[in-house]
Prior knowledge:
The chain is α/β, with parallel strands linked by helices. It has helices spanning 26-38, 58-71, 86-99, 116-129, 148-157, 171-182, 198-204, 218-229, 233-251, 258-266, 280-299, and strands at residues 9-12, 43-44, 78-80, 103-107, 134-138, 161-166, 189-192, 208-210. It has an 8-stranded parallel sheet with strand order 2-1-8-7-6-5-4-3, with helices on one face. Strand 5 (134-138), helix 5 and strand 6 form a beta-alpha-beta unit. It starts with 8 loop residues before the first strand and ends in a 16-residue tail after the last helix.
Amino acid sequence: MNQAATIQGIFVPNIVxxxxxxxxxxxxxxxxxxxxxxxGVTGFxxxxxxxxxxxxxxxxxxxxxRIVSEEANGRPILAGxxxxxxxxxxxxxxYCADLGCRAVSITGPYxxxxxxxxxxxxxxxxxxKSPIDIVVYNIPVFANEISLPVLERLAMDCPRIVxxxxxxxxxxxxxxxxxxxxxxxxxxxxxxxxEELLCTGLFMGADGGTLSxxxxxxEVVMSLYHAARSGNWExxxxxxxxxxxxxSLMVGAPNFPEGFRTGYELRGFKAGSARFPLSPxxxxxxxxxxxxxxxxxxxxxxxxxxxxxxxxxxx
Length: 315
């Protein structure tokens, strides 16, 4: 199987900030990536759902990966490459490989409902032709679900497929993935993509995660990860509950990922307006959430980029 090191740790699916004209704010994106690096995150995950990749042009997606790679300072990059057809996916795979990314993350095909047979054929063709390692991303709320039997066959047959990210929120499936695949192929990376399951996932043997909250409170997520890795499960459990309070506010806001963009603003960054309009009532809900999130962040010791304190209770 693949001889490269197993993908482990916390990869941040960062937002893409916009300027007043709705264009990618390159300077602010660079600031965000450098700040996250200084906070000790393992690596980066550009062009994920948090980065609104579906609302960017193909050239903008390429630009985002390039900017992140230029600011990563040696940290590994797991780049989203979920394009609309195989040719574009492979083109993005080559682009990410040329930039030195560790791997690409590819969802099941989206929009059209496909059979599991078609989905398996899709990933087998990508695995045969890709110049870079692939992490199979299961996110059934946005794309065709990839069944566990299909994932197992891909993991056993395709050395280029080196892991999976699971954002199904299905802990039973996640445990079955660890049980049926990782024990046969220990180098196969199994990452959790849902904050509410991070501590449990790590306890069961997850290699890490790609977590939206890590872009807003990297200190909290990394502290949980390190506590789990050191076997301090009591500390990890305490941090998990702290993280739930923050995550629930941001993920519960209308027009995902607007709640998380608000979180970045409260940490001192200029997020700009997301590329989708909010209704007046939704703007009111966001304002209400912002106030609650500001209080929660302040209670954890986070007051913005210029005045930050460590979260003494859990770090």
